[in-house]
Specification:
There is one protein chain. The protein contains 13 helices and 24 strands. By secondary structure, it is of the alpha/beta class. The termini are far apart. It binds flavin-adenine dinucleotide.
Length: about 475
Protein backbone atom coordinates (compact mmCIF):
# COMPACT_ATOMS: atom_id res chain seq x y z
CA UNK A 1 0.00 0.00 0.00
CA UNK A 2 1.27 3.50 -0.76
CA UNK A 3 2.60 5.55 2.12
CA UNK A 4 -0.16 7.69 3.62
CA UNK A 5 0.59 11.12 5.03
CA UNK A 6 -1.37 13.21 7.51
CA UNK A 7 -1.09 16.36 9.58
CA UNK A 8 -1.87 14.42 12.73
CA UNK A 9 -2.05 10.73 13.54
CA UNK A 10 -3.26 9.28 16.82
CA UNK A 11 -2.16 5.82 17.93
CA UNK A 12 -5.16 4.31 19.73
CA UNK A 13 -8.86 5.14 19.36
CA UNK A 14 -10.03 5.26 22.98
CA UNK A 15 -11.74 8.35 24.41
CA UNK A 16 -8.36 10.08 24.32
CA UNK A 17 -7.50 9.12 20.75
CA UNK A 18 -10.78 9.41 18.86
CA UNK A 19 -11.68 12.72 20.51
CA UNK A 20 -8.22 14.15 19.70
CA UNK A 21 -8.57 13.06 16.06
CA UNK A 22 -12.03 14.58 15.68
CA UNK A 23 -10.90 17.86 17.23
CA UNK A 24 -7.90 17.91 14.87
CA UNK A 25 -10.23 17.41 11.89
CA UNK A 26 -12.50 20.18 13.15
CA UNK A 27 -9.45 22.46 13.21
CA UNK A 28 -8.73 21.69 9.56
CA UNK A 29 -6.05 19.04 9.96
CA UNK A 30 -5.90 15.89 7.88
CA UNK A 31 -6.19 13.37 10.70
CA UNK A 32 -6.09 9.61 11.21
CA UNK A 33 -6.36 7.11 14.04
CA UNK A 34 -4.60 3.76 14.14
CA UNK A 35 -6.45 1.04 16.06
CA UNK A 36 -5.54 -2.63 16.52
CA UNK A 37 -8.79 -3.65 18.14
CA UNK A 38 -12.21 -2.02 18.49
CA UNK A 39 -12.92 1.68 18.02
CA UNK A 40 -13.62 3.43 21.31
CA UNK A 41 -10.87 1.73 23.32
CA UNK A 42 -11.28 0.23 26.76
CA UNK A 43 -13.84 2.84 27.76
CA UNK A 44 -16.51 1.93 25.25
CA UNK A 45 -15.74 -1.75 24.81
CA UNK A 46 -14.49 -3.09 28.15
CA UNK A 47 -14.65 -0.25 30.66
CA UNK A 48 -16.90 2.69 31.46
CA UNK A 49 -19.85 1.87 29.23
CA UNK A 50 -20.37 -1.91 29.55
CA UNK A 51 -19.86 -1.72 33.33
CA UNK A 52 -22.53 0.95 33.57
CA UNK A 53 -24.89 -1.28 31.57
CA UNK A 54 -24.17 -4.14 34.01
CA UNK A 55 -24.65 -1.85 36.99
CA UNK A 56 -27.99 -0.72 35.58
CA UNK A 57 -29.09 -4.36 35.74
CA UNK A 58 -27.79 -4.51 39.32
CA UNK A 59 -29.81 -1.41 40.17
CA UNK A 60 -32.93 -3.02 38.73
CA UNK A 61 -32.21 -6.19 40.74
CA UNK A 62 -32.00 -4.02 43.86
CA UNK A 63 -35.31 -2.32 43.09
CA UNK A 64 -36.98 -5.67 42.37
CA UNK A 65 -35.75 -6.92 45.73
CA UNK A 66 -37.49 -3.95 47.34
CA UNK A 67 -40.74 -4.02 45.34
CA UNK A 68 -42.77 -4.16 48.54
CA UNK A 69 -41.41 -0.77 49.65
CA UNK A 70 -43.14 0.78 46.64
CA UNK A 71 -46.45 -1.08 46.95
CA UNK A 72 -45.79 -3.87 44.48
CA UNK A 73 -45.53 -7.61 44.79
CA UNK A 74 -44.35 -10.30 42.43
CA UNK A 75 -44.40 -14.03 42.95
CA UNK A 76 -41.01 -14.81 41.58
CA UNK A 77 -38.26 -12.62 40.20
CA UNK A 78 -35.35 -14.22 38.42
CA UNK A 79 -32.65 -13.16 36.01
CA UNK A 80 -30.65 -14.66 33.19
CA UNK A 81 -26.98 -13.69 33.53
CA UNK A 82 -26.37 -14.31 29.83
CA UNK A 83 -29.05 -11.76 28.93
CA UNK A 84 -27.63 -9.26 31.42
CA UNK A 85 -24.17 -9.63 29.84
CA UNK A 86 -25.59 -9.64 26.29
CA UNK A 87 -27.32 -6.34 26.97
CA UNK A 88 -24.06 -4.75 28.12
CA UNK A 89 -22.29 -6.07 24.99
CA UNK A 90 -25.01 -4.60 22.76
CA UNK A 91 -24.65 -1.23 24.47
CA UNK A 92 -20.87 -1.35 23.96
CA UNK A 93 -21.24 -2.36 20.30
CA UNK A 94 -23.72 0.46 19.67
CA UNK A 95 -21.30 3.03 21.05
CA UNK A 96 -18.29 1.62 19.21
CA UNK A 97 -20.34 1.86 15.98
CA UNK A 98 -21.16 5.44 16.99
CA UNK A 99 -17.44 6.27 17.15
CA UNK A 100 -16.97 4.79 13.68
CA UNK A 101 -19.76 7.03 12.40
CA UNK A 102 -18.34 10.14 14.11
CA UNK A 103 -14.86 9.53 12.69
CA UNK A 104 -16.31 9.10 9.20
CA UNK A 105 -18.49 12.19 9.56
CA UNK A 106 -15.41 14.21 10.50
CA UNK A 107 -13.34 12.67 7.70
CA UNK A 108 -10.85 11.09 10.09
CA UNK A 109 -9.11 8.13 8.43
CA UNK A 110 -9.20 4.88 10.39
CA UNK A 111 -6.14 2.68 9.88
CA UNK A 112 -6.56 -0.83 11.25
CA UNK A 113 -3.55 -2.57 12.73
CA UNK A 114 -0.84 -2.56 15.36
CA UNK A 115 1.08 0.70 15.17
CA UNK A 116 4.46 1.87 16.43
CA UNK A 117 6.78 4.82 16.02
CA UNK A 118 9.20 4.16 13.16
CA UNK A 119 11.46 7.21 13.04
CA UNK A 120 10.79 10.96 13.11
CA UNK A 121 7.29 11.71 11.82
CA UNK A 122 6.69 8.07 10.91
CA UNK A 123 4.58 5.18 12.14
CA UNK A 124 4.63 1.59 10.96
CA UNK A 125 1.32 -0.28 11.01
CA UNK A 126 1.16 -4.06 10.89
CA UNK A 127 -1.92 -5.97 9.86
CA UNK A 128 -2.22 -9.54 8.68
CA UNK A 129 1.52 -9.81 8.20
CA UNK A 130 1.80 -6.67 6.03
CA UNK A 131 3.40 -3.42 7.17
CA UNK A 132 2.44 0.04 5.93
CA UNK A 133 4.08 3.34 6.72
CA UNK A 134 2.16 6.40 7.78
CA UNK A 135 3.78 9.82 8.02
CA UNK A 136 2.51 12.66 10.18
CA UNK A 137 3.64 16.13 11.24
CA UNK A 138 2.28 15.43 14.68
CA UNK A 139 1.83 12.08 16.43
CA UNK A 140 -0.25 11.51 19.55
CA UNK A 141 0.27 8.31 21.50
CA UNK A 142 -3.00 7.22 23.14
CA UNK A 143 -2.47 3.49 23.64
CA UNK A 144 -4.13 3.38 27.06
CA UNK A 145 -3.41 0.99 29.91
CA UNK A 146 -4.24 -2.45 31.26
CA UNK A 147 -4.76 -4.21 34.59
CA UNK A 148 -1.73 -4.61 36.81
CA UNK A 149 -0.64 -8.11 37.85
CA UNK A 150 1.62 -8.81 40.83
CA UNK A 151 3.82 -11.86 41.50
CA UNK A 152 1.52 -14.50 43.00
CA UNK A 153 -1.52 -12.54 41.87
CA UNK A 154 -1.58 -13.29 38.16
CA UNK A 155 -4.90 -13.52 36.34
CA UNK A 156 -5.60 -16.73 34.40
CA UNK A 157 -8.80 -15.61 32.69
CA UNK A 158 -10.74 -18.56 34.18
CA UNK A 159 -10.69 -18.53 37.95
CA UNK A 160 -8.67 -15.39 38.58
CA UNK A 161 -10.16 -12.53 36.61
CA UNK A 162 -9.28 -9.00 35.65
CA UNK A 163 -12.02 -6.57 34.66
CA UNK A 164 -12.14 -8.23 31.22
CA UNK A 165 -13.43 -11.57 32.49
CA UNK A 166 -15.44 -9.97 35.32
CA UNK A 167 -17.42 -8.18 32.63
CA UNK A 168 -18.13 -11.34 30.66
CA UNK A 169 -19.03 -14.02 33.23
CA UNK A 170 -20.43 -17.25 31.82
CA UNK A 171 -22.05 -18.12 35.12
CA UNK A 172 -22.78 -16.42 38.40
CA UNK A 173 -20.07 -17.10 41.02
CA UNK A 174 -21.55 -18.01 44.40
CA UNK A 175 -18.63 -16.35 46.14
CA UNK A 176 -16.26 -13.72 44.86
CA UNK A 177 -13.07 -12.17 46.21
CA UNK A 178 -12.33 -8.68 44.94
CA UNK A 179 -8.72 -7.64 45.51
CA UNK A 180 -8.48 -3.84 45.58
CA UNK A 181 -11.15 -1.32 46.50
CA UNK A 182 -10.68 1.43 43.94
CA UNK A 183 -13.52 2.36 41.59
CA UNK A 184 -13.19 -0.75 39.38
CA UNK A 185 -13.06 -3.20 42.30
CA UNK A 186 -15.96 -1.58 44.10
CA UNK A 187 -18.15 -1.43 40.98
CA UNK A 188 -17.73 -5.18 40.42
CA UNK A 189 -18.30 -5.85 44.15
CA UNK A 190 -21.55 -3.88 43.91
CA UNK A 191 -22.68 -5.60 40.70
CA UNK A 192 -22.09 -9.15 41.91
CA UNK A 193 -23.50 -8.50 45.39
CA UNK A 194 -26.71 -7.05 43.98
CA UNK A 195 -27.12 -10.15 41.83
CA UNK A 196 -26.73 -12.36 44.89
CA UNK A 197 -23.05 -13.38 45.17
CA UNK A 198 -21.24 -13.51 48.51
CA UNK A 199 -18.62 -10.80 48.02
CA UNK A 200 -15.44 -10.11 50.00
CA UNK A 201 -13.28 -7.06 49.28
CA UNK A 202 -9.66 -6.97 50.45
CA UNK A 203 -7.86 -3.61 50.51
CA UNK A 204 -4.23 -3.08 51.45
CA UNK A 205 -4.85 0.46 52.75
CA UNK A 206 -6.84 1.25 55.87
CA UNK A 207 -10.00 2.28 54.01
CA UNK A 208 -11.92 1.49 50.85
CA UNK A 209 -12.13 3.89 47.91
CA UNK A 210 -8.85 5.35 49.18
CA UNK A 211 -8.78 8.33 46.80
CA UNK A 212 -12.04 9.63 48.27
CA UNK A 213 -12.47 11.86 51.32
CA UNK A 214 -12.12 9.69 54.46
CA UNK A 215 -15.68 10.44 55.60
CA UNK A 216 -17.09 9.26 52.28
CA UNK A 217 -14.97 6.08 52.47
CA UNK A 218 -16.37 5.40 55.95
CA UNK A 219 -19.92 6.04 54.83
CA UNK A 220 -19.46 3.76 51.81
CA UNK A 221 -18.00 0.98 53.93
CA UNK A 222 -20.96 1.03 56.30
CA UNK A 223 -23.43 1.04 53.40
CA UNK A 224 -21.70 -1.88 51.63
CA UNK A 225 -21.40 -3.89 54.84
CA UNK A 226 -25.12 -3.39 55.42
CA UNK A 227 -25.70 -4.90 51.97
CA UNK A 228 -23.66 -7.93 53.06
CA UNK A 229 -20.34 -7.17 51.38
CA UNK A 230 -17.48 -8.33 53.61
CA UNK A 231 -14.67 -5.78 53.72
CA UNK A 232 -11.17 -6.45 55.03
CA UNK A 233 -8.88 -3.40 55.12
CA UNK A 234 -5.18 -3.10 56.01
CA UNK A 235 -4.93 -6.58 54.53
CA UNK A 236 -2.91 -8.25 51.82
CA UNK A 237 -3.69 -11.21 49.61
CA UNK A 238 -0.41 -13.09 49.80
CA UNK A 239 -1.18 -16.01 47.53
CA UNK A 240 -3.90 -17.50 45.36
CA UNK A 241 -4.05 -21.30 45.08
CA UNK A 242 -6.19 -22.67 42.30
CA UNK A 243 -8.32 -25.83 42.47
CA UNK A 244 -10.53 -27.20 39.66
CA UNK A 245 -13.31 -24.66 40.13
CA UNK A 246 -12.26 -22.48 43.07
CA UNK A 247 -9.42 -20.41 44.42
CA UNK A 248 -8.04 -20.36 47.97
CA UNK A 249 -6.66 -16.99 48.97
CA UNK A 250 -4.16 -16.48 51.76
CA UNK A 251 -5.17 -13.21 53.36
CA UNK A 252 -2.89 -11.49 55.86
CA UNK A 253 -4.46 -8.95 58.20
CA UNK A 254 -3.53 -7.70 61.67
CA UNK A 255 -0.53 -10.03 61.83
CA UNK A 256 -2.70 -13.11 61.18
CA UNK A 257 -2.88 -15.20 58.05
CA UNK A 258 -6.07 -17.03 57.02
CA UNK A 259 -7.02 -19.14 54.03
CA UNK A 260 -10.40 -18.50 52.45
CA UNK A 261 -11.89 -20.21 49.40
CA UNK A 262 -13.88 -18.43 46.69
CA UNK A 263 -15.46 -19.43 43.37
CA UNK A 264 -13.73 -16.61 41.55
CA UNK A 265 -11.29 -13.75 42.20
CA UNK A 266 -11.29 -10.31 40.58
CA UNK A 267 -7.94 -8.51 40.61
CA UNK A 268 -8.37 -4.75 40.68
CA UNK A 269 -4.95 -3.77 41.97
CA UNK A 270 -4.04 -0.96 39.64
CA UNK A 271 -3.22 -0.03 36.11
CA UNK A 272 -0.05 -0.10 34.01
CA UNK A 273 0.50 1.94 30.84
CA UNK A 274 0.69 0.26 27.41
CA UNK A 275 4.23 1.47 26.70
CA UNK A 276 5.53 -1.75 25.14
CA UNK A 277 5.94 -2.39 21.40
CA UNK A 278 5.07 1.14 20.36
CA UNK A 279 8.55 2.07 19.18
CA UNK A 280 9.69 4.17 22.14
CA UNK A 281 13.16 2.62 22.06
CA UNK A 282 15.69 5.00 20.57
CA UNK A 283 13.40 8.02 20.98
CA UNK A 284 13.53 10.75 23.61
CA UNK A 285 10.16 9.66 25.03
CA UNK A 286 10.64 9.10 28.76
CA UNK A 287 8.77 6.41 30.67
CA UNK A 288 8.36 6.45 34.45
CA UNK A 289 6.48 3.80 36.42
CA UNK A 290 5.02 2.36 33.18
CA UNK A 291 3.65 5.74 32.05
CA UNK A 292 4.90 8.20 29.42
CA UNK A 293 6.16 11.49 30.85
CA UNK A 294 4.62 14.63 29.29
CA UNK A 295 4.70 18.38 29.82
CA UNK A 296 1.65 20.57 30.41
CA UNK A 297 0.77 20.45 26.67
CA UNK A 298 1.08 16.64 26.55
CA UNK A 299 4.39 16.84 24.66
CA UNK A 300 6.87 14.00 25.24
CA UNK A 301 10.66 14.48 25.06
CA UNK A 302 10.58 13.50 21.36
CA UNK A 303 9.86 16.44 19.01
CA UNK A 304 6.43 16.12 17.37
CA UNK A 305 5.35 13.23 19.61
CA UNK A 306 2.64 13.77 22.23
CA UNK A 307 0.92 11.42 24.67
CA UNK A 308 -2.46 11.50 26.40
CA UNK A 309 -4.92 9.52 28.50
CA UNK A 310 -4.27 6.40 30.56
CA UNK A 311 -0.87 6.03 28.91
CA UNK A 312 0.38 9.12 30.77
CA UNK A 313 -0.90 8.14 34.21
CA UNK A 314 -3.58 8.82 36.77
CA UNK A 315 -6.33 9.68 37.17
CA UNK A 316 -7.21 6.87 34.74
CA UNK A 317 -10.47 8.37 33.56
CA UNK A 318 -12.07 8.65 30.14
CA UNK A 319 -13.00 12.34 30.48
CA UNK A 320 -9.44 13.16 31.52
CA UNK A 321 -8.16 11.35 28.39
CA UNK A 322 -10.59 13.26 26.15
CA UNK A 323 -9.77 16.59 27.77
CA UNK A 324 -6.06 16.00 27.25
CA UNK A 325 -6.75 15.04 23.63
CA UNK A 326 -8.53 18.31 22.98
CA UNK A 327 -6.05 20.57 24.77
CA UNK A 328 -3.11 18.83 23.10
CA UNK A 329 -4.57 19.23 19.60
CA UNK A 330 -5.67 22.82 20.22
CA UNK A 331 -2.19 23.68 21.45
CA UNK A 332 -0.66 22.09 18.34
CA UNK A 333 -3.08 24.10 16.17
CA UNK A 334 -2.21 27.33 17.99
CA UNK A 335 -5.75 27.92 19.27
CA UNK A 336 -5.78 30.90 21.64
CA UNK A 337 -6.81 30.59 25.28
CA UNK A 338 -6.08 26.88 25.72
CA UNK A 339 -5.44 25.93 29.34
CA UNK A 340 -3.27 23.10 30.64
CA UNK A 341 -5.13 20.40 32.56
CA UNK A 342 -6.04 21.32 36.13
CA UNK A 343 -6.35 18.02 38.02
CA UNK A 344 -8.32 19.69 40.79
CA UNK A 345 -11.17 20.08 38.30
CA UNK A 346 -11.41 16.47 37.18
CA UNK A 347 -14.46 14.83 38.72
CA UNK A 348 -14.25 11.15 39.65
CA UNK A 349 -17.25 8.84 39.90
CA UNK A 350 -17.88 5.30 41.15
CA UNK A 351 -21.18 3.81 40.01
CA UNK A 352 -21.72 1.46 42.94
CA UNK A 353 -24.79 1.55 45.17
CA UNK A 354 -24.90 4.12 46.69
CA UNK A 355 -22.94 6.04 44.06
CA UNK A 356 -19.80 8.02 44.97
CA UNK A 357 -18.54 11.18 43.25
CA UNK A 358 -16.05 13.91 44.03
CA UNK A 359 -14.09 16.80 42.63
CA UNK A 360 -11.15 18.72 44.07
CA UNK A 361 -9.42 18.40 47.40
CA UNK A 362 -10.55 16.18 50.25
CA UNK A 363 -10.64 17.81 53.68
CA UNK A 364 -7.35 16.15 54.64
CA UNK A 365 -5.66 17.12 51.35
CA UNK A 366 -6.87 20.72 51.69
CA UNK A 367 -5.43 20.94 55.21
CA UNK A 368 -2.20 19.28 54.10
CA UNK A 369 -1.93 21.90 51.33
CA UNK A 370 -2.01 24.59 54.02
CA UNK A 371 -5.62 25.76 53.67
CA UNK A 372 -7.62 26.79 56.67
CA UNK A 373 -10.94 25.16 55.82
CA UNK A 374 -14.65 25.52 56.38
CA UNK A 375 -16.52 22.24 55.92
CA UNK A 376 -20.20 21.71 55.21
CA UNK A 377 -22.15 18.46 55.39
CA UNK A 378 -25.68 17.55 54.46
CA UNK A 379 -27.23 14.08 54.76
CA UNK A 380 -29.71 12.70 52.20
CA UNK A 381 -32.11 11.97 55.05
CA UNK A 382 -32.79 15.73 55.22
CA UNK A 383 -33.84 15.88 51.56
CA UNK A 384 -37.47 15.46 50.45
CA UNK A 385 -36.70 14.00 47.02
CA UNK A 386 -34.31 11.42 48.47
CA UNK A 387 -37.01 10.24 50.85
CA UNK A 388 -39.66 10.20 48.09
CA UNK A 389 -37.33 8.10 45.92
CA UNK A 390 -36.73 5.69 48.80
CA UNK A 391 -33.01 6.59 48.71
CA UNK A 392 -32.42 8.35 52.04
CA UNK A 393 -28.85 7.13 52.38
CA UNK A 394 -26.23 9.69 51.41
CA UNK A 395 -23.97 12.56 52.36
CA UNK A 396 -22.73 15.70 50.63
CA UNK A 397 -19.59 17.26 51.99
CA UNK A 398 -18.10 20.53 50.79
CA UNK A 399 -14.69 21.99 51.62
CA UNK A 400 -14.03 25.73 51.34
CA UNK A 401 -10.99 27.90 51.88
CA UNK A 402 -11.92 29.74 55.09
CA UNK A 403 -10.13 32.92 54.00
CA UNK A 404 -11.27 33.31 50.40
CA UNK A 405 -14.45 31.20 50.28
CA UNK A 406 -13.11 29.27 47.27
CA UNK A 407 -14.73 25.86 46.80
CA UNK A 408 -11.76 23.52 47.22
CA UNK A 409 -13.56 20.21 47.01
CA UNK A 410 -16.90 18.43 47.02
CA UNK A 411 -17.50 14.83 48.07
CA UNK A 412 -20.76 13.00 47.60
CA UNK A 413 -22.28 9.61 48.26
CA UNK A 414 -25.89 8.74 47.50
CA UNK A 415 -28.39 8.26 44.68
CA UNK A 416 -27.44 9.96 41.40
CA UNK A 417 -24.41 11.79 42.78
CA UNK A 418 -22.53 10.86 39.59
CA UNK A 419 -24.94 13.16 37.75
CA UNK A 420 -24.96 15.84 40.45
CA UNK A 421 -21.20 16.29 40.84
CA UNK A 422 -21.07 18.28 37.62
CA UNK A 423 -22.75 21.21 39.43
CA UNK A 424 -19.75 21.53 41.70
CA UNK A 425 -17.34 20.90 38.80
CA UNK A 426 -18.78 23.87 36.92
CA UNK A 427 -18.58 25.90 40.14
CA UNK A 428 -14.88 25.06 40.36
CA UNK A 429 -14.28 25.97 36.70
CA UNK A 430 -15.93 29.32 37.39
CA UNK A 431 -13.79 29.67 40.52
CA UNK A 432 -16.97 30.09 42.53
CA UNK A 433 -16.98 30.94 46.18
CA UNK A 434 -19.57 30.09 48.80
CA UNK A 435 -21.31 33.39 47.97
CA UNK A 436 -22.35 32.37 44.42
CA UNK A 437 -23.28 28.87 45.50
CA UNK A 438 -25.46 30.17 48.34
CA UNK A 439 -27.07 32.69 45.95
CA UNK A 440 -27.90 29.97 43.42
CA UNK A 441 -31.52 28.83 43.34
CA UNK A 442 -31.87 25.05 43.36
CA UNK A 443 -35.12 23.47 42.11
CA UNK A 444 -37.39 21.77 44.63
CA UNK A 445 -37.78 18.89 45.17
CA UNK A 446 -34.48 17.62 43.81
CA UNK A 447 -31.48 15.76 45.14
CA UNK A 448 -29.46 18.82 44.10
CA UNK A 449 -30.84 20.70 47.09
CA UNK A 450 -28.43 18.63 49.23
CA UNK A 451 -25.62 20.41 47.37
CA UNK A 452 -27.02 23.81 48.34
CA UNK A 453 -27.58 22.78 51.94
CA UNK A 454 -24.04 21.43 52.27
CA UNK A 455 -22.67 24.83 51.23
CA UNK A 456 -25.06 26.58 53.62
CA UNK A 457 -23.94 24.24 56.40
CA UNK A 458 -20.30 25.22 55.92
CA UNK A 459 -21.37 28.72 56.95
CA UNK A 460 -23.80 27.69 59.70
CA UNK A 461 -26.90 28.34 57.58
CA UNK A 462 -28.33 24.91 56.65
CA UNK A 463 -32.12 25.03 56.81
CA UNK A 464 -33.29 21.44 56.69
CA UNK A 465 -31.01 19.69 59.16
C1 LIG B 1 -13.83 -1.84 34.18
C2 LIG B 1 -13.50 -0.40 33.92
C3 LIG B 1 -14.45 0.57 34.19
C4 LIG B 1 -14.15 1.91 33.94
N1 LIG B 1 -15.09 2.85 34.23
C5 LIG B 1 -14.82 4.14 34.00
C6 LIG B 1 -15.79 5.14 34.25
O1 LIG B 1 -16.90 4.85 34.68
N2 LIG B 1 -15.46 6.43 34.00
C7 LIG B 1 -14.23 6.78 33.51
O2 LIG B 1 -13.99 7.97 33.29
N3 LIG B 1 -13.28 5.86 33.28
C8 LIG B 1 -13.55 4.55 33.50
N4 LIG B 1 -12.61 3.61 33.22
C9 LIG B 1 -11.30 4.06 32.70
C10 LIG B 1 -11.37 4.37 31.21
O3 LIG B 1 -11.81 3.23 30.51
C11 LIG B 1 -10.02 4.83 30.72
O4 LIG B 1 -9.58 5.91 31.51
C12 LIG B 1 -10.07 5.27 29.28
O5 LIG B 1 -10.51 4.23 28.44
C13 LIG B 1 -8.69 5.76 28.83
O6 LIG B 1 -8.78 6.18 27.51
P1 LIG B 1 -7.50 6.14 26.55
O7 LIG B 1 -7.96 6.73 25.27
O8 LIG B 1 -6.35 6.73 27.24
O9 LIG B 1 -7.16 4.61 26.34
P2 LIG B 1 -8.02 3.32 25.97
O10 LIG B 1 -9.46 3.51 26.14
O11 LIG B 1 -7.37 2.21 26.72
O12 LIG B 1 -7.74 3.13 24.42
C14 LIG B 1 -6.49 2.77 23.93
C15 LIG B 1 -6.68 2.17 22.57
O13 LIG B 1 -5.42 2.04 21.97
C16 LIG B 1 -5.38 0.82 21.25
N5 LIG B 1 -3.97 0.46 21.10
C17 LIG B 1 -3.07 0.24 22.08
N6 LIG B 1 -1.85 -0.01 21.54
C18 LIG B 1 -2.00 0.07 20.20
C19 LIG B 1 -1.11 -0.07 19.12
N7 LIG B 1 0.17 -0.33 19.31
N8 LIG B 1 -1.61 0.05 17.87
C20 LIG B 1 -2.93 0.31 17.65
N9 LIG B 1 -3.80 0.48 18.65
C21 LIG B 1 -3.35 0.36 19.91
C22 LIG B 1 -6.16 -0.13 22.13
O14 LIG B 1 -6.64 -1.23 21.37
C23 LIG B 1 -7.29 0.77 22.60
O15 LIG B 1 -8.39 0.72 21.74
C24 LIG B 1 -12.89 2.26 33.43
C25 LIG B 1 -11.94 1.28 33.13
C26 LIG B 1 -12.24 -0.03 33.36
C27 LIG B 1 -11.22 -1.08 33.04
Amino acid sequence: MAEQSFDLVVLGSGPGGYVAAIRAAQLGMKAAVIERDQLGGICLNLGCIPTKALLRSAEIAHLLNHLGDYGFSAKEVSFDLKKVVDRSRKVAAQLSAGVKFLLKKNKVAVIEGQGRLAGPGKLAVEKDGATTTVTAKHIILATGARARALPGLEPDGKLIWTYREAMLPDRMPKSLLVVGSGAIGIEFASFYRNLGAEVTVVEVLDRILPVEDAEISDFARKAFEKQGIKIITSATVKALKKAADSVTATIEAGGKSTDQTFDRVVLAIGIVGNVENIGLEGTKVKVEKTHVVIDKWCATGEPGVYAIGDLVGPPWLAHKASHEGVLCVEHIAGVKGVHPLDVSRIPGCTYCMPQVASVGLSEAAAKAAGHEVKVGRFPYIGNGKAIALGEPQGLVKTVFDAKTGELLGAHMIGAEVTELIQGYTIAKTLESTEAELMETIFPHPTLSETMHESVLDAYGRAIHF
